[in-house]
């Protein structure tokens, strides 16, 4: 029962930490480290929530969650479902076992469904681009979409593509376009689509939870800020800021499903202010401590699954 109590406390702590982190502003000073912390909170919350239910349900077997599951499955296979639950096995333990396995199945299925839908959307859009987009020698390596609206986005994957509209070419100056393309290249290079995928899946599984919606929104903003920071290495931050403002005033076309767009964030002004007046970066020691804490937090739940108490 000790493992169940600790896992329940860990899941609660992760939920509270996510709630506080969603309203914090210090992550803007170190978006990559904050993204890692968000990922750690999400993974740990899922494993701890499932583990707490299973640890309580399988406590009569002893040996922890992993051993209990193995023993339970062996009993079901060898003796049948009626003999799989060791007595005395009361209704709360049966309910906890059912809830734990159901939550685990929902999280896995929703993650796979979100990934499958994203891949299908990208495949359809790539087929569409083959019909309506073209290359331009003036903008090498970029697909040009004949559309008057302002649009710039990337389709990550094994064959990543960066797409801009004809309206974007006429809207932005050369330096601003360079900044936007550097931003999209950062999305592709750092695979921010994979960062967002678990939070998208979690928002599908638990759409009624405000903390889940806030987590998705916060990570989406941090992903954009991380791409902005990468783009700043190759262009003027003010040029990227003016490009974002031009996208905002021109009514930028939203990025299609499965894509990441430069002007698609709901917090454009926060990004612009950060680019124009960047705050001091978090001390390196703090960032290293944050990474270390995230790693330790991530491995804590799996270790507790093995704890025999």
TrEMBL record:
Binds 1 zinc ion per subunit. Keywords: Hydrolase, Membrane, Metal-binding, Metalloprotease, Protease, Transmembrane, Transmembrane helix, Zinc. Its cofactor is Zn(2+). The chain crosses the membrane at residues 34-58, 94-114, 286-307. InterPro entries: Beta-lactam_resp_regulator (IPR052173), Peptidase_M48 (IPR001915). Residues 143-199 form the Peptidase M48 domain. Belongs to the peptidase M48 family. PANTHER family: POSSIBLE SENSOR-TRANSDUCER PROTEIN BLAR (PTHR34978), SLR0241 PROTEIN (PTHR34978:SF3). This is M56 family metallopeptidase. It comes from Sphaerisporangium dianthi.
């Amino acid at each position: 029962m000790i493992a169940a109590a600790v896992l329940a406390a860990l899941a609660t702590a992760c939920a509270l930490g996510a709630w506080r982190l969603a309203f914090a502003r210090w992550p803007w000073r170190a978006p990559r480290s904050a993204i890692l912390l968000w990922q750690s909170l999400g993974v740990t919350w899922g494993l701890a929530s499932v583990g707490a239910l299973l640890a309580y349900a399988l406590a009569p077997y002893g040996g922890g969650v992993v051993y209990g599951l193995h023993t339970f499955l062996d009993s079901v296979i060898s003796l049948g479902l009626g003999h799989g639950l060791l007595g005395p096995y009361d209704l709360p333990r049966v309910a906890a076992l059912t809830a734990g396995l159901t939550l685990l199945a929902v999280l896995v299925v929703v993650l796979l469904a979100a990934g499958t839908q994203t891949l299908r959307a990208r495949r359809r859009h790539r087929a569409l681009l083959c019909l309506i987009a073209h290359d331009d020698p003036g903008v090498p390596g970029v697909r040009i979409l004949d559309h008057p609206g302002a649009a710039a986005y990337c389709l990550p994957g094994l064959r990543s593509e960066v797409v801009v509209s004809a309206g974007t070419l006429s809207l932005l100056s050369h330096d601003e376009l360079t900044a936007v393309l550097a931003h999209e290249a950062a999305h592709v290079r750092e695979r921010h689509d994979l960062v967002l995928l678990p939070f998208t899946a979690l928002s599908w599984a638990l759409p009624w939870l405000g903390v889940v919606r806030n987590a998705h929104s916060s990570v989406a903003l941090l992903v954009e800020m991380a791409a902005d920071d990468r783009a700043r290495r190759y262009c003027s931050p003010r040029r990227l800021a003016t490009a974002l403002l031009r996208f905002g005033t021109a009514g930028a076309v939203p990025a299609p499903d499965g894509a990441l767009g430069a002007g698609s964030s709901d917090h454009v002004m926060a990004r612009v202010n950060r680019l124009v007046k960047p705050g001091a970066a978090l001390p390196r020691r703090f960032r290293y401590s944050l990474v270390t804490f995230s790693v330790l937090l991530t491995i804590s739940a799996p270790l507790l699954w093995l704890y025999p108490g």
